[in-house]
Each structure stands twice: as structure tokens, then as C-alpha cells.
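Form 12-C: Joint structure prediction
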Amino acid sequence: VSTGRKVCLSFVVTVAALLLATPTAYGKTRVSASGDVVTITVPIDVQLVGHDPVTDSDRTYFDQLEKLTDKFWWGDKLRELRYRDCLRFELVLDINLLPDSPEAVPRDGAHQIEWWLDDPNVRSTVIDPGTSDPTEDAPTAFRDSLTGQWGYMNIRDFNHELGHLLGLGDDYTGYPDSTPLPGRDGTMMDGGSTVDQALMDRIGKVIEEGGIELPECDEVWEGEVRYAITGHPTIALRFMGSARIAVGADESVDGSMRGRGVVTDFGGPHRFTSTCDIGGRREATSLALELQSCTSSSAAGGFSGAGGSLTLAITGTTARGSFSSFGYDSFEMRLRCVSCEGVG
Amino acid sequence: VLLAGGCGGRGESAEPGSPEGAITGFSAEAARVDASFEAIHEHLQSRSTELREAALEHLEDDDRNVRYASLYALALTAEKGESVEALRSFLKSNDVSERMLAAGSLVARGEKAAIPVLIDALGSDGLLDFRDPPKPAWEFAHLVLTRYTGRESPLHTPPDLAAAVAAKTAWESWWREQGESLRWNPAMRVYEE
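Section 2 - Result
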């Protein structure tokens, strides 16, 4: 069976309207957005207690801290997740080192941290005047500069404190002995290093609670696809796969479908995998989808349909010659909306 | 830890008060504990002598929380003499939180007698009181040992308990072989072999 397959299809999926926006807003921990990338900039003035002047060694250390936080900690972990299933958070640390000197001039709008870099016993604290509950997420960091005292700590603990400057509360409670909140054992805001979807969602929520508007997401639909040719005198085909489709602000439709199948013809069964691009447009109460191109490991052909009643035409080329079919096919695409505003 | 603010809550700003007041007023109530630490921190630079003296005075207080606050303040302000001597006695405490406060302070002041106490704690998964984020003794001990022997940067991902326990034997061997000759370099704040 030759490779290369061309398929066209239209059918109906009911959807609702989508609101889109791409605002930009600034706070103390600042937020800006471009497309589906939300950049969170955390400006921190670090007064190095006992260090005057700030040395090259200090600068090297903090340069490394910034890079590693981006590459392996909050930065990397946030990039792997999505808020509302579409927005990606990009973290930018903006650390300004200040000597332990009365002449040091802090930046307006930056969080102010006294860092006791040489004392492992100083208990690290971020002061948030916006909440009376340390386990509560609060948007204060996005409205005002916060203050705090930090002791000598490892990079994990730094990232925990950084979480507070992203508006996150603690995932543990109780003194002097601490216990994780239910389901939060081992998170970055407990005593571990896990950044899960819940933390991502909490950051997004607290940003929005701070009055900062984040971009609306594309509608995202996903689900399973089943396609079969049955009853045809010379060919039988079954295909099962999954589809993911996004509906953009301009009402364009973009997506893909992929799966595995088996086609049986004169030469016997041939297994194949297939991937198709999906295009189309939003209509008043529906999506008109079109499979624009498919690549398949073993079959080539095309089919088209309209509305909810599909008229399928399959053509293909196998090692034994061309074939086509009408009226023997069934196509089922069950989609659910995973990121839709107001869509049931 | 996130020190919350607001009236009457955990973030209630501590009264400036005296250094002694910061110690005797220390509270472990969730709504006040961070303000209690903040009250101590406020005096670290400007009134450290008074804070140290108050700490020495309340080390044997009947109130467990005041005793903790005293030891905490002493650990941050200790100088050679009475305060360091007082800390040394806590190296043998049955309470791992007290041992780690004392050992962390002493090792950072060139008192190498604290090193074997830290090595011993590498096998302890007991949580230290009031730490943020929550910290088991082994993790604190690892952080402090590696810092003051110059063996590892805090930028490294911290190990897990199994790795710390596995490393304990090596640390014990190192201490047996190098302990006597170790010298404190006050300029670099590190022990040198």
C-alpha cells in the first residue's frame, strides 16, 4: 500500500462564542502578554547583609541562581504547564544586588529582601500585608512591593520564597511542627519541589484577582475519531484516533487528527498510522471542519462530507491498483471542549 | 514562609518594643508566629547586643516558645564568650531543633565542635521547628556542612534523605581523618583541610 493520503471532510460541531483579548498590565511583580505567552517579571532588590561592597563572587552566584531557576526550577516547570490549557508563563527574575550600606538605593517598585547570605539559621519570611492567612494566595505582590528577610538557603528554598513573590501562599500549616495541606505534600510551596497544575492555576488566578487581565484562550476541542468502511465489496477500513482542534479569535479553525487503522483489500490487511491537519471555520452555531491533508503510512485517498450527514468518498491507491468507495463509510468524531469560555 | 499582614491576624505587625519583648512575646500561634520572628529580626542589626543579653536571660524560661525564641535569637547574635559557651551546651540537647540551631550558629563562627553534631543529624528526618519551608534535620545539616566545608554550592539540587544517609558514613570518615587538622578561615568563612 502506498503512502500519501488526501482527505476532505466537513461536519458539524456545536460551539458557543469566544471572547478574545490580549491586554498588558503591570504591577510590582509585573505581567505582560504577547499571544499565548504571559511574561511574569519579578524585580527583587537583594540587600546582602554583611556584604559591602557587593563582590564579583556575589554577582556570579546570583547570575547562576537566576539561570538555574529559569532552567530547572520555576522557569522550566512553568513552561511545561498551561494556564486555562493554553497560556504559557515565562518567568523573568530581575535581581538587583545592594550592599549592606545606608547609601544603597533601592529601586522603586522592586520587592525588598534582606538576605542573610551567611547565616543558615535566619528564618526566611516574605511579608504580605494583604492577607492574614499564610496559606492563602494573595495578589499583593502584583500590586505592591513586598519585603522580607531570607537566610542562607538552598536553591529549592529560594524557589519556595520566590513562589510568595508570585502570590502563592504556603502549602503547609501548623507550628512549630508543620504538616502539608491535604493533597499538597511535596509541592514547591510545601517542603518539596513539585510544581503541579494546581500551582500553575493558582498563579494565574491570583494574577487575575490582582486586576490584571490575561489573554483569552482559543477554544480547544479534543476527543476521539472513529472511521470505518464497512460493506464495501472490495475494501474494509477501520481507523481509530484522536483529534485536537483550536478555534482562534479570527474564527479560524486549526487542528490535527492522528491515529491507527487497518485497511483490507485484495492484498490482505495492511496496518497504517495516519496524521491529518484540520482546517476550517466557525459558523454561526457550528464548526465546519475540513481535513486538509493527511499523511499515512500505508494508504492514500480522500473523502468529503457536509453538515451532519456525511457523504464519504474514499479513493486510494494500493499495490494492486486504485479503488474508490461511496456510501459504505461511517465517520464519528466525538469532541469535548477543554478550554472554552461559556461553552458547555 | 509567607508572613501575612492585616489587623489582628498572623501578619499583625510586631510592636517595635524591646529586644527582650521580642523574645518574651514570641508566639507559636499561626496568626502571630511570623510577626514574632519579624520582631526578633528587627533587632538583629541595630540592637544585637541587647537581643543577645535578653536571649541569655531567657534560655531557661518556663515557656517552651520563649525558650525557642531565646535560643533562636542567641544563635543569630552569638559572639565569642558567654553566648558561644551557652550555645555549646545545646549541642547535646535531646531536641534536634535545638541542636541544629546551636550547631548551625557555632559552625558558622568557626566552632568546629559543631561539625560532628551536624554529621550525626544527616540520619535524622525529624522536622525542625518553625523552619520555612518545612525542613528536616538531615537537609539542614547537609546544607550547613557543605556550605562551611566548601564542598557544594547551595545551587545544587538538595539530595534526598537516602542520599544524605548514604553520605553520612563518608562524612564520618572525613571527620575522623580531617577533623583535628581542620582550620577555620574567617575571611572566607569556610573550614580548610
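Section 3 - Comments
Chain B has a mean pLDDT of 90. Strands of chain B lie at 2-4, 183-185, 190-192.
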